[in-house]
Amino acid sequence: MNHLIAPSILAADFANLQRDVEMLNASEADYIHVDIMDGIFVPNISFGLPVCEAIYKHAKKPLDVHLMIEKPENYIQAFHDAGAATISVHYEATNHLHRVLQQIRDFGLRAGVAINPHTNVQLLEDVITDIDLVCMMSVNPGFGGQKFIEQTYTKVRRLKEIIVDAEASTLIEIDGGVNIDNAPKLLEAGADVLVAGSFVFKSDSPIDTIKELKNVGS
Question: Mind telling me which PANTHER family this protein's record contains (predicted)?
Fold first, then answer.
């Protein structure tokens, strides 16, 4: 499978949100990554359901919703109704991960699990066949534009071994500090989906930057 690109709308110009969503529609992006932060699970507040609904209204790409919030199980139906195609919840944010994964799938959505940089991938071993996507944080969650954590490559390799051993079809998504320099190494280690925010939206030509990321390794 060719790797996928999921630009993070968190880095967009919110005074021109429709324009930036339409730019992503015209690009080679595969998903639109939507970061939801509650100011409790992470030390930042991004946006909530109304903005997700507004993005969905104009989006022609599937919404890859990343819930960086406490008790995500209370909001699955709401984000389904707001247009999510994938919902990723943090391993660290819920006491009943398997139940939440089933809840997401019951709505016909792809079920994802996000893990913080300090979280061991072995903790996902018992539920890996119930996970469609692992969103591996390669920076500490909460703010865009952070420096990539080099230990991520090792974690990707370990997670890939778990997926292969379980004969699962789980995708590995990398979120944080992704750029054209580390993208080849991440793909070589086993990543399937690259999330890029600042690297895309702060570039001179976001469409060309997305194309460049899409063509890595081809």
Answer: RIBULOSE-5-PHOSPHATE-3-EPIMERASE
Residues within the annotated binding site for substrate? 8, 66, 142-145, 175-177, 197-198
Numbered residues of the known binding site for a divalent metal cation: 33, 35, 66, 175
% of the chain exceeding 70 in pLDDT: 97
Q: Which domains does the chain possess?
A: 4-214 (3.20.20.70)
**Per-residue pLDDT at 65 exceeds 80:** yes
Report field, pTM of the whole predicted structure over 0.85:
yes
What does the pLDDT look like over 37-62, one tens digit per residue? 999 998 888 899 999 999 999 999 99
User: Residue ranges for the binding site?
Assistant: 8, 33, 35, 66, 142-145, 175-177, 197-198
Q: Is 176 within 8 Å of 197 (Cβ atoms)?
A: no
**Catalytic residue IDs:** 35, 175
Give per-residue pLDDT as tens, 141-198. 766 666 889 999 999 999 999 999 999 999 999 999 999 999 999 999 999 999 999 9
